[in-house]
Amino acid sequence: MAILDTSARVRRPRRRTATAAMAVLRFFVTVVTTYLGLLAVTFFIGRVIPIDPVLAILGDRAPASAIARVRVELGLDLPLWHQFLIYMGKVLTGDFGTSVLTTYPVMQDIARVFPATIELATVGTLIGALTGIPLGVLAAVKRGSIADQVVRVIGLIGYSVPIFWLGLLALVLFYAKLRLVAYPGRIDIAYEYTFTPITGFYILDAIIARQWDVLADVLRHIVLPAGLLGYFSLAYISRMTRSFMLNELAQEYVVAARAKGLSETRIIWFHALRNAAVPLVTVIALSYAGLLEGSVLTETIFSWPGLGLYITNSLQNADMNAVLGGTIIVGSVFIGINIFTDLLYRTLDPRTRRR
């Protein structure tokens, strides 16, 4: 009997190790497959779009001999599968080619403009989370009331109204009419030559440099575009918070807590919301990723010098190296945030580790 018990105890750790190894392998295969799919899509988009990269570099009046030579140098005379392997190898080493518009390496351009997009999306997500979660809780607690209907209408408008229309309307109202915010852009032209960014995140850089006048100017520029993105984030977060809270408030532990005489405030904010926070982390992370990839129109409307505006200008000038490089970076960030969210979810919810 003792021998059987010992063998059973030995087999259990082996099974756990094998299960963990298989989970890691599946996770790795999923990540690699997703990234290869991203590379394949961007590669074939670059080949399907009716823009000749050689003519984009040399111009329409270049001689035929120069066009043929550059085509060979770019590897466009090779079979499609060979071109894809070369493309994949360059991308994996961070080589996206040279931008026709700026004449700099695309990776260098992205490193310059991407902090502006991250800063805008971060502030927008903070606004959306700090307002969306309380509104979602309020709607769930007051289910069916006027407050619930108002929150749901706010979320519906956020989902329905085109962001470019709302952005233009906000500019007309808050900048042109009321003069409450600064003009489109990231910083006033008066500070462009006196303010030296350190990290590329202007709010943080102004605090580090203790240039409070610059900080005030940066905040006046970012408040409107970040508020617009925050509103769309709020619509998603408040809706999901309401759904999660309704599910938690219907659980037996809430009934038991009320029977014990706990206050409604404690039940809602310290028990129900705490349990709803696990899936809510995923919602906020996905909302953040959505703002990073979906801020193209916002950056264009507000002349925000981020990755979205960079991709838009590159597309208008047939600069496909920059367009595809920016698309890959956005896709990679989205994949990375999804991976981080999945790991965080497994850490916060022990039940998912057994799956």
List keywords for this structure.
single chain, 355 residues, mainly alpha, MetI-like fold, 2 domains, 14 helices, 76% helix, 0% strand
Tell me the layout of helices and strands.
Blueprint: H1 2-48, H2 53-58, H3 64-73, H4 80-92, H5 106-141, H6 146-160, H7 163-177, H8 202-209, H9 212-249, H10 252-259, H11 264-293, H12 296-301, H13 307-316, H14 320-348
Helix pairs in contact: 1-4, 1-14, 5-6, 5-9, 5-11, 5-14, 6-9, 7-9, 8-9, 9-11, 11-14, 13-14
Descriptive report:
Residues 114-345 form the ABC transmembrane type-1 domain. It holds the Pfam family BPD_transp_1_N. The chain crosses the membrane at residues 21-45, 84-106, 118-141, 153-178, 190-212, 218-237, 276-302, 322-345. By secondary structure, the chain is mostly helical. The protein folds into two domains: 22-92, no CATH class; 106-354, MetI-like fold (Orthogonal Bundle), CATH 1.10.3720.10. It is 76% helix and 0% strand. The chain has 14 helices and no strands. The chain has helices at 2-48, 53-58, 64-73, 80-92, 106-141, 146-160, 163-177, 202-209, 212-249, 252-259, 264-293, 296-301, 307-316, 320-348. α1 runs antiparallel to α14 (320-348) and α5 (106-141) crosses α14 (320-348). The longest helix has 47 residues, at 2-48. 27% of the residues are buried. The mean pLDDT is 83.
